[in-house]
Amino acid sequence: MRAAVLALVLLPYAARAEPPVHGRDFPRSLIDRPLILPTNFLEVSLLGNLSNEGAGTSGAATALGVEVGSGEGQAGLAVALPVNPDFGFGSVAGSLAYSLTRQAAFRIDLGFDHSQGHDGRADTNFYYGAVGLPAKVRLSPWFALVSGRVGAIDSAHFVNLNDGGGSGFYQGAGQNAFSSSNLLTFTKQEDGPTQIGVNLPAGLLIQVADSLALTLRAGYEVIISTSTGDTKHFLPVGLEAVYSPTRDFDLGASFSLPGPIATTVSSSSLGYTDIRLAVLWLRFRT
């Protein structure tokens, strides 16, 4: 009995005692990688996305992210821009992650989103903070359960939509309905209301080959407005593919639906597939 109790107490330390990953030892296959970048690793990500909400409401955004690993922790910064319509500044997001075990971590995010005003509408600023517990539970050499992820550029999707008449409404990362990598997100509009997002991300990672991984993502999300008490419920789904020709380079693509299923807002009439988001990204590490 004492031995069993001692084993449970020492389990976190045993997990942390795994040999560090260095240089060419970094796994090529996505399923074998630790959540946190190894010490002195630098990772650079460039992504572009296209969002659509019915006819005539498409928009595009791009983002650049940089991550630095220390083995037990990881720090990242991402900058996102609306591209079309309204090219200009959009978001800045910072993220810190701390390794709990090799395949589980705690993350905290802080960010700022800026949406340009049109037709008498003032510019709008949003500030957000979030916490999450990304994890990867390996079931076999080819399958793993995943929840969330690590990285500033992966904190959430950066969404830009056409607001009619050629003008845009940049939603950024803190205020859109797409599934986040965090469990709780608090978004405050400058001189305006606060929005709370509760998200339970889940997914199945399938390692098809050493160089190719597919992830089926799902979950549940509810967004609550503190000013009106209105709530919106979502069952987000998505499919993601990552091709890794080398250990140092990833090419990824995904398609996502936020999946609205219920709301207390009487004016909202969006169907489950009415909002769509496609993302393409490149990722380099050294």
Condensed summary:
The protein is mostly beta strands and 286 residues long. The protein is 5% helix and 57% strand.
Query: Which class best fits the helix and strand makeup?
Result: mainly beta
Low-pLDDT residue intervals, each spanning 5 or more residues: 1-23
Major sheet: arrangement of strands: 1-2-3-4-5-6-11-12-13-15-16-18
Proportion of strand residues:
over 45%
The share of residues in helices is under 10%
Q: What overall form do the CA principal axes indicate?
A: globular
CATH homologous superfamily placement: monomeric porin ompg
Which architecture name does CATH use? Beta Barrel
**Straight-line N-to-C gap:** 46 Å
What is the CATH T-level topology?
Porin
- Helices and strands, in order, run as HEEEEEEEEEEEEEEEEEE
The largest sheet is: 12 strands, antiparallel, barrel
Can you count the beta strands? 18
Mean pLDDT: 85
Q: What is the domain tally?
A: 1
Q: CATH first level: which class?
A: Mainly Beta
Write down the Rg: 19 Å
Write up what this structure looks like.
- The chain is mainly beta and 286 residues long.
- The chain has a single domain (28-285), classed as monomeric porin ompg (Porin, Beta Barrel), CATH 2.40.160.40.
- The protein has one helix and 18 strands.
- The chain has one helix spanning 2-16, and strands at 42-53, 59-69, 73-84, 91-101, 104-115, 124-132, 135-138, 143-147, 159-164, 167-172, 184-189, 194-209, 212-225, 231-234, 237-246, 249-257, 260-263, 275-285.
- The radius of gyration is 19 Å and the shape is globular.
- Mean pLDDT is 85; it is low at 1-23.
